[in-house]
Design brief:
Layout lengths: L4 H4 L11 H16 L24 E6 L5 E5 L4 E4 L7 E2 L8 E7 L3 E6 L4 E4 L7 E3 L7 E8 L2 E6 L4 E4 L7 E2 L8 E5 L6 E5 L4 E4 L7 E2 L8 E5 L6 E5 L3 E5 L7 E4 L7 H4 L1 H6 L3 E7 L2 E6 L4 E4 L7 E3 L10 E6 L4 E6 L4 E5 L2 E2 L7
Length: 358
C-alpha cells in the first residue's frame, strides 16, 4: 500500500476480512475520482482559477495561507499555484519535479518547503514563484511537512520516515522511527512539543524537539490522517470512517467525538452508515474555530474550540469533491483544497459561492 497511499487514501488497516469485498465496492467511486484525469473547473473567483490567471485542474493535496489573500497550493504532477487576491486568480509556479506534491509549509512569507511522492522535496525563497529541488536521502513517499521553529522543518511519510532540516529545507537528516508505519501528518504547537500521526491509530509525541519519540495510546487501530495540537496539551486527530478524537492531556487519554473507535465489517456497520461517516483527512484551528475536511465534500466546523462540530456545505457543484487538505490564517480565513483543482476560500465557517468573496 505504500506506493499508492496518497491517491486512494487507504493505508493498511487491521480490518475484518469480511469487509474487503463490499468495502472495495464502496471505496471504488472515491478511488476513481482520485485516479481519474482531472477535469477543468469553473473560473468563478472561488478557487480553480479566474480570467487572467492559470486554470487549475490538477488534484490538490496541500495548502498554505501566507496571509488573508496570499496562498500556495500543491498537487498532482508537481503542480504549485499561487494566489495574491484570495483565490480570484491563480498563477502557476515553476517547479523542477513532476512528482505528486502532497504537502507544503512556509517559514514566513517567502521561505517554504513542499514534499511528495518518491521523496520529492522542493524549496522556495520568493513566496512560491520559483522552486529548487532538494535531496532528502530517501525515495519514500513524504506526506507531510511542517516548520516547528524558524528554519527548522520536518517531513514524514512511508515506513516511519522522519526527516529533519535545520536550514529551511536545503539539507535533511534522517530521523526515521523504527516502526514500519505510514506517517500521514504532524503538528508542532511549539519548538519542543510535536506530534506525528498515521496508520494503525498511531500518534507519536516528542517533548524534546524531536530527539526522542513516545507512542501514545489512542485506543484505536484505525488510520489517522490528520492531527492538530493548538497547544501542547490540547489536540485532535481525524481519520478513517469519520473518526474524530480529542485529548486535553497531551495525548495520555483520548475521547471519541465522532465515528467509532473499533474496526467493523461493512456488513455490520451498514452501507448507509458508512456513507454518513466518510473518511476525514485534515484538521486545523484558528483561535476557537476549527475545521475538518474529508471525502464526499465533507466539511466540519467548530465555533467553540473543538467542543462540538457541525457539518457545513461547499457551494453547489463542488459539494461532492473529495477534500484532502486545508489551511487557516490568524485572521480567520480558511482554504480547502481537493479533487479537480478545487480551492475554496472561506471565513467564519462559510465558503464562497460563484463570484463571491468570503
Amino acid at each position: 500500500m505504500h506506493g499508492t497511499f496518497p491517491p486512494n487514501r487507504r493505508a493498511r488497516s487491521r480490518r475484518p476480512k469480511v469487509r474487503h469485498g463490499l468495502a472495495a465496492a464502496a471505496a471504488l467511486p472515491i478511488a476513481l475520482l482520485l485516479l481519474s484525469a482531472p477535469r477543468p473547473v469553473r473560473a468563478d473567483g472561488a478557487g480553480g482559477g479566474a480570467p487572467g490567471g492559470a486554470r487549475v485542474v490538477e488534484n490538490l493535496y496541500g495548502a498554505k495561507l501566507l496571509d488573508e489573500d496570499h496562498a500556495v497550493v500543491v498537487g498532482a504532477f508537481g503542480a504549485v499555484f499561487r494566489t495574491a487576491d484570495g483565490g480570484r486568480t491563480w498563477q502557476a509556479a515553476k517547479v523542477p519535479t513532476r512528482e505528486y506534491l502532497f504537502a507544503v509549509d512556509f517559514d514566513g512569507p517567502s521561505d517554504g518547503v513542499a514534499v511528495g511522492k518518491a521523496g520529492a522535496i522542493v524549496t522556495t525563497a520568493d513566496g512560491g514563484e520559483t522552486w529548487t529541488r532538494r535531496e532528502g536521502g530517501t525515495d519514500r513517499n513524504l506526506f507531510s511537512v511542517a516548520f516547528s521553529a524558524p528554519k527548522h522543518a520536518w517531513a514524514v511519510g512511508d515506513w516511519g520516515t522522519v526527516l529533519e532540516s535545520t536550514d529551511g529545507g536545503a539539507t535533511w537528516t534522517n530521523r526515521s522511527l523504527k516502526d514500519d508505519v505510514v506517517l500521514t501528518s504532524q503538528s508542532w504547537p511549539d519548538a519542543s512539543h510535536g506530534y506525528l500521526a498515521g496508520e494503525f491509530g498511531t500518534v507519536q509525541k516528542t517533548e524534546d524537539g524531536g530527539a526522542t519519540w513516545t507512542k501514545l495510546p489512542t485506543g484505536t487501530d484505525k488510520t489517522i490522517f490528520g492531527v492538530a495540537f493548538p497547544t501542547a496539551q490540547k489536540g485532535w486527530a481525524v481519520g478513517i470512517d469519520g473518526l474524530v478524537l480529542r485529548t486535553t492531556d497531551g495525548g495520555a487519554t483520548w475521547n471519541l467525538q465522532r465515528g467509532r473507535m473499533g474496526i467493523e465489517s461493512l456488513e455490520a456497520l451498514g452501507f448507509m452508515e458508512a456513507l454518513r461517516n466518510p473518511s476525514l483527512y485534515d484538521v486545523r484551528f484558528s483561535g476557537p474555530r476549527g475545521y475538518v475536511v474529508g471525502d464526499i465534500g465533507t466539511v466540519l466546523v467548530s465555533d467553540d474550540a473543538g467542543e462540538t462540530w457541525k457539518e457545513k456545505k461547499l457551494p453547489t457543484g463542488r459539494d461532492m469533491n473529495w477534500l484532502r487538505g486545508l489551511a487557516v490564517s490568524a485572521g480567520g480565513r480558511a482554504l480547502v483544497v481537493g479533487s479537480n483543482g478545487l480551492a475554496a476560500f472561506g471565513r467564519d465557517g462559510e465558503f464562497a459561492g460563484k463570484g463571491e468573496r468570503p
